[in-house]
Design a protein that fits this description.
378 residues, Lysozyme-like, 4 helices, alpha+beta, 12% helix
Length: 378
């Protein structure tokens, strides 16, 4: 999810960096605040007291970062945020990455704003540059550094098994539960929210590293979860589901994978929809074949629960002027749409978005009862 700010061509792709030496200044972090979670995870906030920059410095270990602010009346529209990080293993500094801004509506986002998170891998140093937009800088600007911790060990008992159709139009894919990826349930809002039957599945990419071991996907998801809740102040992780590069489907927001849980993923259109995010940045990197396969299987099942044809279209009413459609406008969407269809963003990326027609076709075949080849092996 991301809006407003330009997207760096290498955003999230930490394996492809233009490196040059940088010396971390002997700077004391300005009044850092550290919030911990079960499993050893933490979020450290560093106020950007200078307003526009944070000199290179040594930090607590982290694997994901973002920039947030407190002022709900302002955003960084027209401006930019750039970060560079130091690898904890090699001690080499990355090139600059430009962050996307996030924007969500409803009770999840009562005020303030934040950039989309950037997965950096194990890091222990950071530098930040902020360029204000026409409206200037919002108040309470801060850098958020997330350590996902070790979480709970995934187990077969923590996966919803694949299930044959039972009155639905497509089988349920195997889904790793929140317990399976190690969600700390004490972080989220205990209240659960639901919407009407899911008639649109919005596809996203997480703007995180693309080349990762699938065994590390739970760490990435935990970090995104902590960022959405502890940094952004959302009720829970924004996405309803996530799919890793091996095609594994993960339960996102709590409330029941089979139920129409109200998410926070597509500004203006979180009602009667579900958001599924592919783990990675698909701007120049091509999604591995298991990614669209996993997206199709999930969409076919989820849409089938409401009797929505995956190859069909439906209408949703915008709830926000910040979307592509003014509040109150009725918009028509493909049943499987991209985030960019509803919002001014590049998401789900220039290489994943063109695959949506094929994903719709595959999902429709699954709904018709056709057998589809098994997902590519890990």
């Amino acid at each position: 999810m991301g809006i407003s700010l330009p997207v760096a061509a290498l955003a999230g792709c930490t394996a492809v960096l233009l490196l040059q030496p940088v010396t971390a200044a002997a700077v004391t972090d300005p009044a850092p605040q550290r919030r911990t979670s079960a499993g050893g995870g933490s979020v450290t906030s560093l106020p950007l007291t200078a307003g526009r920059a944070l000199a290179p410095r040594t930090t607590k270990p982290f694997e994901l970062l973002g920039v947030g602010w407190d002022d709900p009346a302002r955003s960084l529209a027209g401006g930019s945020v750039r970060v560079r990080t130091r690898d904890a293993g090699t001690h080499v500094w990355s090139g600059w990455h430009e962050l996307e801004a996030d924007g969500e509506d409803g009770p999840d986002h009562p005020g303030g704003g934040a950039t989309a998170p950037l997965w950096t891998g194990p890091s222990d140093g950071v530098a930040v540059q902020v360029t204000p937009g026409p409206a200037g800088l919002p108040a309470g600007l801060r850098l958020e550094l997330v350590d996902p911790g070790h979480g709970a060990a995934p187990a077969t008992t923590r996966t919803l098994p694949a299930e044959s159709p039972d009155g639905h139009q497509a089988p349920r894919p195997a889904i790793v539960t929140r317990a399976g990826w190690g969600a700390d349930e004490s972080l989220r809002d205990p209240e659960l929210g639901y919407t009407g039957p899911v008639r649109v599945v919005f596809v996203h990419h997480t703007v995180t590293a693309t080349e990762y071991a699938c065994s590390d996907a739970p760490r990435v998801i935990r970090a995104i979860y902590q960022y959405h809740v502890q940094s952004n102040g959302w009720r829970d992780i924004g996405y309803n589901f996530l799919v890793d590069r091996c095609g594994t489907v993960y339960e996102g927001r709590a409330g029941g994978a089979e139920l129409p849980v109200h998410g926070a993923h597509t500004l203006g259109f979180n009602t009667d929809s579900a958001g599924v995010a592919a783990l990675g940045t698909f701007v120049t990197d091509t999604p591995p074949p298991p990614v669209p396969d996993g997206l199709a299987r999930l969409a076919a099942w989820k849409l089938g629960l409401a009797g929505q044809a995956a190859a069909g279209r439906t209408q949703l009413v915008s709830s926000s002027d910040g979307s592509r459609y003014p509040k109150g406008t009725t918009a028509t969407f493909e049943a499987v749409s991209g985030h960019r269809d509803a919002f001014n963003t590049e998401c789900p990326g220039a290489t994943l978005y063109p695959l949506l027609p094929a994903i719709r076709t595959q999902a429709a075949l699954l709904q018709s009862g056709a057998r589809w080849p098994a997902p590519t092996a890990r």
